[in-house]
Recover the amino acids of this structure.
């Protein structure tokens, strides 16, 4: 009795292929259930099967689509948003070294983050709170309006009760401190990508203390409208009323009205006090 030198695994693939040909001849157009093979293995050994034995109902195009879908379903795509280039590069190297994670883009400002998120549609966005042009809270709110399924992880040095509550109320799914170990960010990305929430240990402590207190602090910024916050951010970033009016396509008189209204809500009397308020509440980098 002659021995077939073909490896047993490949012979199994051939038997599946022959079965697929029989099904095709009976006009049953469906994929053969691969009980002992995964998509990746079937794709790898497909080239070892003679061309005339390959079934027409499992063509290379359909095979590639199935493999692509199988790999993409388990891949977590990430957008990194931070105003420091060395931080973005370090985070990219860290997350790209993890299996099933891929950094597909980065941004240095809040406005760039909104544009990049709409274009790339990442699974997870890792974002700092303090950035020029548009802070992380406002950028996150705008992104979640367009992409509500995107998961948000805040990575910041801020750990006050006010900052944590503002971020969570705005829609953050994770909150990690920059002083934490590198693997903590990896755990946070995995958790939020799986539909869970993640808080650093220190953040959870602050959050619990805030909930147990007599009243949960609310930021004065929450009394401002989206347009008032935008005017505030541009004002403390050094833009004049004329520059803001041109950027927002509004009249200078309207900008002055917004500024007067927000200063009244924040109980500040001049531009210097407004800048100090913005620095204390992480609207601009220190």
């Amino acid at each position: 009795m002659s021995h077939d030198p073909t490896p047993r695994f490949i012979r199994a693939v051939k038997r599946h292929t022959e079965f697929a040909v029989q099904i095709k001849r009976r006009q049953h157009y469906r994929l053969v259930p691969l009980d002992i093979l995964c998509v990746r293995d079937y794709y790898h050994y497909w080239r070892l099967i003679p061309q005339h034995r390959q079934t027409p109902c499992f063509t290379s195009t359909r095979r590639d689509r199935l493999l692509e879908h199988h790999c993409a379903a388990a891949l977590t795509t990430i957008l990194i948003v931070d105003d420091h280039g060395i931080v973005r590069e370090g985070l990219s190297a860290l997350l790209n070294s993890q299996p099933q994670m891929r950094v597909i883009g980065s941004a240095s400002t809040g406005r760039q983050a909104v544009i990049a998120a709409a274009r790339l549609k990442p699974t997870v966005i890792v974002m700092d709170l303090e950035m020029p042009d548009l802070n992380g809270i406002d950028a996150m709110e705008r992104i979640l309006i367009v992409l509500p399924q995107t998961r948000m992880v805040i990575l910041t040095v801020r750990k006050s009760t006010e900052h944590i509550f503002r971020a969570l109320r705005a829609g953050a799914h994770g909150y990690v401190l920059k002083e934490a170990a590198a693997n903590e960010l990896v755990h946070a990305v995995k958790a939020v990508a799986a539909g869970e929430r993640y808080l650093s240990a220190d953040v959870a402590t602050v959050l619990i203390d805030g909930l147990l207190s007599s009243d949960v602090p609310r930021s004065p910024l929450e009394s401002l409208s989206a347009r008032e916050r935008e005017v505030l951010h541009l004002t403390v970033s050094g833009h004049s009323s004329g520059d803001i009016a041109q950027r927002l396509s509004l009249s200078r008189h309207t900008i002055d009205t917004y500024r007067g209204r927000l200063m009244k809500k924040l109980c500040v009397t001049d531009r210097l006090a407004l800048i100090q308020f913005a620095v204390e509440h992480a609207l601009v980098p220190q």
About this structure: Confidence is low (pLDDT under 50) at residues 17-59.
